[in-house]
Amino acid sequence: MTGIVASGVGVGTLIMPPLAQWLISTYSWRTCYIVVGILALALAILAAQFLRRDPGQIGQSPYGESEVKEERLNLEARGFSFQEAIHSRQFWMLSGLYFCHGFFLQAIMVHIVPYAIELRIPAMIAANILAIIGGLNSVGRVGIGSASDRIGNKLSLLIAFIMTAVALLWLQLAQELWMLFLFAALFGFGGGGQTALMAPAAAELFGLRVHGTILGTVVFIANIGGAVGPLIAGYIFDITNSYYLAFLISAGLGIMAIVLTSFLRAPQIVRGAGALD
Q1: 23 near 32, Cβ under 8 Å?
Q2: What span, in angstroms and rounded, lies between the C-alpha atoms of 165 and 82?
Q3: Which residues, 6+ apart, have CB-to-CB distance to 58 below 8 Å?
Q4: How many Cα atoms are found within 13 Å in the side-chain-facing hemisphere of 66?
Q5: pLDDT tier, 273 (very low <50, low <70, confident <90, very high otherwise)
């Protein structure tokens, strides 16, 4: 379910880069911003009209309501407080791997089109690389999110990070358009799966007692990675006139995320002792 809901981000990334590139080429970047802003505002307002707090508002009951309530009680019973969570190694491992995710995801999203243009690929075609990342991102969110229901969050997260690490290593060799398209497909699918599993992984590790606070903190740390990734990649390009080192660092962080994920396990609360596993 999380993957289906989150897949909308990938759909937007699939549609908007070619549209934005066409608007810039045909009119100007100012017109592009105005059109995109109006579209975003209109679609958000329209979609909000269909939101309901729960099925009871339309006279229905959630599917499997009793099972959901039982599972929620179990998660809340073993749920961590925020202070307990941040004193566990597992919290910082989860935050660390999503910092890596934010870093390489945003570094690629910002710089992959300029990299393609450096390879003499026309801008309009280069924008399609982002579109492929967005389209496969949606597929990955649904596909890997669905797989996690069968094989578990940890194994699914490992598969997702292995895919992005392989894609980033492949990017070191990518000099032709088909190679970049293959990179985009693999990177988008794996990255989408990682995003879809953020909330379920946090809930599985720390329960639902303060899930919003814990998840918000993990997302905040991921966004720090997302903020510094493009800046560092751009700075490296400015001083070396090449993206090679920036993409290599991203690949290294992808491998680091695999290592951190492999050590994830549900921590145990040691109440009264002030220590966590």
Answers
A1: yes
A2: 31
A3: 52
A4: 0
A5: very low
Query: Is 138 within 8 Å of 192 (Cβ atoms)?
Result: yes
- Spatial separation of the C-alpha atoms in residues 214 and 198, rounded to whole Å: 11
Contact 250, 103 (CB under 8 A): yes
d(CA 205, CA 115): 38
The pair phi, psi for residue 270, each rounded to 5°, is -105, 85
Q: Closest Cα partner for 191 from 5, 10, 2, 1? A: 10
What is the structure's pLDDT at 256? 97
Structure-token pair, residue 126: 């280069």
CA distance 94 to 91: 5
Q: What are the sequence ranges of the domains in the chain?
A: 2-267
- The tens digit of pLDDT for each residue in 51-76 reads 766 666 666 666 555 555 555 555 45
**pLDDT value of residue 274:** 46
| C-alpha dist (Å) from residue 13 to 8, 99, 200, 213 | 9, 21, 23, 28
Burial of 92 (0-12, 13-18, 19+ CB in 10 A): middle
Question: Please, which pLDDT band fits residue 80 given cuts at 50, 70 and 90?
Answer: confident
* Average pLDDT score, the chain: 85
Residues 6+ apart with CB under 8 A from 219: 98, 198
CATH class of the structural domain 2-267: mainly alpha
Q: Higher confidence at residue 35 or residue 223?
A: 223
pLDDT band at residue 237 under the 50/70/90 scheme: very high
* pTM for the full predicted model: 0.76
Task: For the beta carbon of residue 199, count every other beta carbon within 10 angstroms.
Answer: 19
Strands 275-276 and 269-270, bridge-based pairing: antiparallel
